[in-house]
Design brief:
Layout: E1 4-16, E2 30-41, E3 44-57, E4 63-65, H1 71-83, H2 92-120, E5 127-133, E6 136-145, E7 149-154, E8 179-182, H3 183-191, E9 195-199
Antiparallel strand pairs: 1-2, 2-3, 3-4, 5-6, 5-9, 6-7, 7-8
The structure holds zinc ion.
Zinc ion binds near residues 23 and 57.
């Protein structure tokens, strides 16, 4: 279950010197307060979703929502609201998400770099995950490498889900037979996406 909601945080208060309380008629008795709401998920603040506020009279304790304020009180409240800055931690979740995105794109970049190295200099035991046709995937295992070719043993099994290909990667699934692929053909297969992953 995903627990989410919103929460208001008090960010600024100011006592109004000129306004008059509509309830008791006292001048300068109103304190204006601004809150900023943020969305949260599992209690982690995600991002702010607007400000709201109220005024309270410290003489008669009367509370006014913004929609109940007279025009002059509301003008003063709006000025305060525009000045009021909320805390940066209300963006925590967005920060976490940005860090995760940056990290995963870095990690996948590093992964690509490694794969390019693997394809340029194959070694025995490398496993190529490749596409046979739509919804049909299998693996090849490198069993020897010569100057310009690699010799691979094909997996005798195939699987329809790319993400489950690891299930057929078992030593006993590889054929006794092997065949050669030129290193240039191998590069071509990798760059065309026919070989889509290499495990070493
Ligand atoms: Zn009052």
């Amino acid at each position: 279950m995903i627990i989410y909601g919103s929460k208001a945080v008090h960010i600024k208060s100011e006592q109004s010197k000129t306004s008059i309380c509509p309830s008791c008629g006292t001048q300068g008795s109103l304190t204006l307060q601004v809150f900023r709401r943020h969305a949260h998920i599992f209690w982690i603040p995600l991002f702010p979703i607007g400000k709201k506020g109220m005024s309270q009279c410290h003489h008669c304790k009367n509370v006014l929502e913004t929609k109940e304020m007279s025009e002059s009180i509301r003008r003063e409240y709006n000025n305060l609201k525009n000045k009021a800055k909320g805390p940066i931690w209300q963006f925590s979740g967005l920060g976490i998400i940005a860090v995760l995105i940056a990290w995963s794109s870095y990690a996948s970049g590093e992964d690509k770099k490694l794969e390019l190295e693997y394809i340029a200099s194959p070694v025995n035991g490398d496993i190529y995950e490749y596409k046979i046709e739509t919804s049909s995937y299998s693996t090849l295992k490198v069993i020897s490498v010569s100057k310009d070719s690699v010799f691979v043993s094909p997996n005798e099994y195939e699987i329809s889900k790319k993400s489950r290909i690891y299930r057929i990667n078992k030593p006993e699934n590889y054929s006794e037979l092997s065949y050669g692929i030129s290193k240039s053909k191998l590069k071509e297969m990798y760059h065309s996406g026919e070989i889509f992953d290499i495990n070493r």
